[in-house]
Every structure is written in structure tokens, then in C-alpha cells.
Amino acid sequence: MSDKKTDVIARARQIIDSYQGAPIRIMEVCGTHTHEIFRLGIRQILPPTIRLISGPGCPVCVTPVDFIDEAILLAMEHGATICTFGDLVRVPGSAGVPAVRKTGADASDNTAKAAEKTAAKAAENPKSETEETEKDAASAAGPADSSAGKGRRIGSLAAARAAGAKIQVVYAPQDAVAYAEEHPQEQVVFLSVGFETTTPTACLAVQEAQQKGLTNFSILTANKTMPSAYAAMKDSTDAFLYPGHVHAITGTGICEELARKGTSGVVAGFTAKELMTALAVVVKKTQEGKPFFENCYPRVVRPEGSPAAQKLVEKMMEPCDARWRGIGVLPDSGMKLRAEYADYDARVKFALPAMEGRENPACRCGEVLQGKCLPSDCKVFGTGCTPEHPVGACMVSGEGACSAFYLYGGDRM
Amino acid sequence: MLQDTVTLAHGAGGKQTSELIEKVFKAHFENPLFTPDDAAVLQIGPGADGQLPRLAMSTDGFIVSPSFFPGGNIGKLSICGTVNDLACMGAQPLYMTCAFVIEEGFPMSKLEEIAAAMEKTAAEAGVCIVAGDTKVAGRGQVDGVFITTTAVGRIMDGVTTGGALAKPGDSVIVTGDIGRHGCTILLARDDYGIEADVTSDCAPLWNAVRNVLTEVPGVHVIRDATRGGVGTVLYEIAGQSNVGFALDAENIPVDPGVRGVCGMLGLEPLYLACEGRLVIITPPETRDKVLDILRNSPHTEGAACIGTVTEDHPGRVVLQTEIGAQTILPQPGNELLPRIC
Description:
The structure holds 2 protein chains of 2 kinds. By secondary structure, chain A is α/β, with parallel strands linked by helices. Among the domains of chain A are: 3-61 and 227-306 and 365-407, 3-Layer(aba) Sandwich (Rossmann fold); 100-143. Helices cover 41% and strands 15% of the residues of chain A. In chain A, the strands form 2 sheets. A 6-stranded mixed β-sheet of chain A has the order 4-3-5-6-11-10, sandwiched between helices. In chain A, helix 9 runs parallel beside helix 10. By secondary structure, chain B is of the alpha+beta class. Chain B folds into 2 domains: 8-155, CATH 3.30.1330.10; 171-328, Phosphoribosyl-aminoimidazole Synthetase, Chain A, domain 2. Chain B is built from 8 helices and 13 strands. A 7-stranded mixed β-sheet of chain B has the order 8-10-7-11-9-12-13. The chains are: A alpha/beta, B alpha+beta. The A-B interface holds A 1, 5, 9, 13, 35, 38-42, 44-45, 171-172, 175, 272, 276, 387-388, 398, 407-409, 413 and B 191-193, 250, 266, 318, 321-328, 330-331, 333-334.
């Protein structure tokens, strides 16, 4: 380690260690931040008055159940080849949860509760009682909703693959376009998840497919934008650790505006030095008592962001309401292709029905993402829900709060 | 005249089989013990003290894809893997057999190249190839060429190593920068569209081990950090010896290219495979001597002490990170890694 780097980290630690003010909650809203914070052990060296919360920032973790259901439907019913980032393959969809029929009647409310109870039980004992509880739930809830046909019984894309569906793991949207070009006889759907950082690459993929005249490529969008998440989370934290990659694209205007309206935060980079510096700045600025914003990642994040990427997305996509797993629908927090690109929008192309996902009631991912509970407060954490057998999305991705908590043995050693 | 590619007839046991063995394998493996008979006949004499020798024996199958990669090929790998396994027990590799399963249509020139690499690596390791087997499988039944090697070696007098022998206070040494083989294979498969200047660490390590054990016979554990990498090996030893490990993240040698690739793909270098790196666990008073010998031995010049064995947190590997915090190294995961060896 260079001396300079050691100095910077030591100075940051000193500022953090000597903090004696009121408790501070700092929320990171980026999967890479979550992973690095756990890998470096940052939570353990913070004084008890400074608390880090892993907010909604891992794209896999906030992807709703019905999106997985849609992808399974495309693969199983429409025979489409699904190209996806690897993490999504193991995320549970609705079928992992016993079906609950949606009606307004009181009686079915009770059956719904009974089904939820058995579902929770199933999640706590995934192996031994699954079969029995599925039967219980089926009898409690009546016949399963059949609107989605046989796709409903497949619990994840991994299960779909085992049942014969074509699920292709790719590392970039462009790989999916290349795959479509090489397999003209297949209908290829790319699962487009992610925030401002990845959305431009999805747009580029559509543009490329259009230029190549491909008619067998489309994307299923679940792209999201951070500002509405900031707004939804602002009361759960005292300061945000804004994601460096996102603001490299969007610029820092939104952060400055939030500060004017009373919500503090700093843009942070990803190395030990950058993260520690950003936290020290939060601690220092908090003591000054005024809402603040500071760009602690200036080598990458410029105030204006990346105009080229912004223009591309603006040209091809428009905002829409979007569901965040565990949090609910946030208005205008999603991005979908504009009507002129409908040929590349899998929802339009395959006339997908509106789907209502059912989250496993035992899973508390939503509360974890809002800092309302620790992963270890969830009843299924580490027992029914592990990285090998995830119940909630936060346990699937290596960037998820639950997964990081599980792998690194919690908050403290 | 040898054909350009391997055909099913080369595996049928007739004239063409003899020709393949004669012109490719025997040309490279010939030695007085290389047998034309059904089995090699070998003798191992008593040790210096007149006692019967203790033998170590190991076997390993190699199916790496691609079979040629920067820094080596499947032939070199098939010698290193088995010889290094013996070296971990303090055994001088003596005799080796090798079995080939070759895909119909495999280029003869490539097979030659593989055999030449085996000849060179076996000579460096001082092991004698004494028998072999050749099978040809139909197109698509194997991918290129698969090799299985088996070797027997003599354990050095006064040496007893094993995964259950780590003691609290011992020093933990790696014999060079970690994860290069796994990283090389990932890049060679071109799944990620990433280019980086990384070559495999694949190397035979008996000479370095002999140099160490000659001077320091009391080494406790030697392990070959192949599949699963150094992290997996340490977790195995932690379990076997019922001890913990405290590593200093800053001291773990990682090539900048490997570090860059790991950063991009979210991989932990401690879990990337090596094919020429050992984990050596030795009493603290011998640490500097072992390091000094390794740094002056072939393929181990980059040796470094990365931590110590602890009585605390048995079964766990704990890392001191660059901010001075202690974290648990997450247990090896279940990710599907490509065929690396």
C-alpha cells in the first residue's frame, strides 16, 4: 500500500472514530457499494452511532416478482430464448409461493391468510415440508390462478431451464444481439434490468438490432431510475451515499436539488480510499448541521454527467411507473421503450398479459432495503433462505444485502 | 506416413495405433523403462537409512478447455498437476503413466505439441513416463483431448506433511502471485470479451519443494492450490486441522492484470485456480528460511507470507482488510466455473 493511500484512510478513520454527535444513518443505494462495504469490513469499524443501511441499489434485488413471471412465461409459453445476466436466473418468481386467489370477498381473505401462513412455513422448512404445505395451500386457496398457464408452476428461470427452456447467460446486452444474429430461427428476449448505468447499453443493443434489421430480438424492460428511490427512502436515512456509476451518467443536478430540499448525500467511488473518504465527509458535514451535497468521486463524476448517454436514452425510452420488489410501485421510476420502438418491446411483441406477482410473505427483503430491519431479523434468513436456496432476491445476488450479510457473517465479527 | 488428424483407426489397436504410439508418444516419452509390454516393471530401492521407502501415489484427469492457453497446454498441465500433488506429500516423483482420450479429427500436429510439452515438463520434474494408453472417441464424444496421469513418488526421509498438521502460530506462505491460471482460462474462453495480459502459472514445483524440505524437513502442510484456489485450500486445512487463519489482504500477491479482471467480473482472486502455486504452512521460526529458499528456486521466486494459523475462530479464514478491519473470507461458493484443469 502506498503511504499516501494509508494516510488518506487513516485520516478518514480518525474523523469517523472521533465522532461524538447524534446517531447518523447513512444509506448506500448501490450493489457494488454494499459488496465493497462488507468486503472491506467497514461496518465493523464504525462507532455505534454511525449506522450503514443497504438500500435499494442492486438491480437484481429490486426486480419485481412479476418480471420473473413474465420472463418464465416468454420462455415456456412463447418458446423464446431468454438472454440474461446470470444473477437473475436464480431469482424466485411467484410459483415458488403457493397460489393465492385475488378476490375482494372476506372469506377469501381468510383463505389468503391461510395460504400465506403455509407459504411462510414452507419457506422456513424448504425441504421437508414443501410438498405437504403446497397441498395445504392449494386446498386453502382453491384452484390456482391459471391466467398464465403452465408457466406459473415454474419457480425461477433456473427451473425453466431444467424444464427445457432456452436460458442463455450473457455479460452485456450486445451479446444478446450477437446471439440473435447467429440464431435467426429463435426469438431472443434480453432481460433489461438495471439503473441509469446500464440503461444506455440496452438502448444501444436495440439500436444495433435495428441497424442489422433483426426481427428476432426484443427486450423485456425493468429498467429503473434512482431519483424516485431517493425520494421514497429519504426518511429512512440521514444521508445518502450516492452511487458513483449512476451519477457518472446522470450528473449531480438531482443530488444538489435534494440537498436544497433538505436531503443530504455524497457521491462516492468504490475503492477503500474513496469509500472511507466519502463517509468521513458525511460525518464532518453532518456536524455542520445543514443539508449538504458533496461530490467525493470527481475523477469520474462530472456535474453534467454524460450528455451522450442521456440523449440516447431520452430518444429511445420514456418514464413509466415501476414496481420495486419489496417496496411497491414508485411513479415514473421506470423506463420503457417509446412507441416507435415497439417492435423491440417484448411486452408489446408477445402481447403479454398484465401479471400480478406474489412475493413470498415470509421474505422481509422490502424492510431490509428500507433499513427497517437487519437481514438477520428475518425469520427465514440463513435457514430457509441461503445463497444456495434463496427465497428473496436480496439473497441471490452477490451484491444483495442479505447475501453479503450471510457470506460475511453479519455486521460485526 | 502419419495422417494429419487422429482417426478412429488410431484407437483401434492395429497398425495405425502402433504408428501413433511410435511416432508421437514414444518419440517424446522414450526411456529405458517405457514399456512395450502390458505393464511397466519397476524397482524402488531402500532409503539412505536402509529402511523401505514410503511411497506417495496420485492420479488426476485433465479436461481443460481450451487445451492450449497462454503459458501452457493440457500436456504441460497434466504433468504439473500430478507431480505437484506428489510434491505436496514431500515425495520425489519417480514414475508416471498417462492415458489419452482423443477426439476423432484432432490435429496430429497439436497432439505432437502436447506430447512435446509433456516430455519437457517431465524432464524438468525428473519423472519418468513408463506406460500409457491411447483411446480415440468419436467426434463430439470428448472435447479435443483428455489426459489422465498417475504417478508414484518416494517421500523424503524425515518428512511428514498433511492437511491436519497445521498448528496455531504457524506461518502461511504462498509460492507466488495467485489466480493466474484460472484467470488465463477465463480469458482464453473469450466469454467476456475482456483482453488482459495474463499467462498461466502452470509449473512443476518438485525442485522448489525439494530445496525447501532438504533444509527445513519440519514443514507442516504443503497443498497445491488448484481448483478452488488458495481460499478453498485454506478452508479445507482449517477444517482438517481445526484451526483458523488470519490473512493480511495487503500481503497476498496478485498480478495487476488478474486484479483488474477480478474487479471487472466481481471475482475473488483467492478463489481462482492456480496450477503452479503451493500453500506452505510452517513453524514461525522457519518462515524466513523457507521464504529465502523459495525465492531462490525455480517457479517460486514470488513467494510471500500471507498470514498465520490461529487458535481463534477455528474453521474460518479471516482477512485483515486495507482499512484495518477484520472480515471473514466468504466460504467457497457454488458458482459454475468453466473447465480449468
